[in-house]
Amino acid sequence: MVKVKRVSLPPIGEYYSDLLLYDSFIVGRSQSMQASSLLCSKLQERESKIESRLEYLAEKRNISVVELKRQIRSGEISNDEFEEP
Q: How many CA atoms lie within 13 A of 46 on its CB side?
């Protein structure tokens, strides 16, 4: 079984915190469950863009996307090594 690390986020500010509270109330979920759902939804929305950027970065380094992902997951490479495309 793959162990998933818990993600910790900085405070989102009063305005967004209130929006999350209202949204959570409306859908009948806890704030943490609704925040998780919203984050997953946004990541799904951006998935193809993320994959496209990974392809670009892997090609630039003459490695496969699979290898780049492995290096990112293992911590062998940091985002300090990347320039924005």
A: 9
Judge whether 76 lies within some domain.
yes
Query: How far apart are alpha carbons 78 and 85 in whole angstroms?
Result: 16
Total number of domains in the chain: 1
pLDDT tens across 9-42, in order?
899 999 999 999 999 999 999 999 999 999 999 9
Domain extent at residue 30: 14-81
pTM, two decimals, is: 0.78
The answer as to whether 3 is a domain residue is no
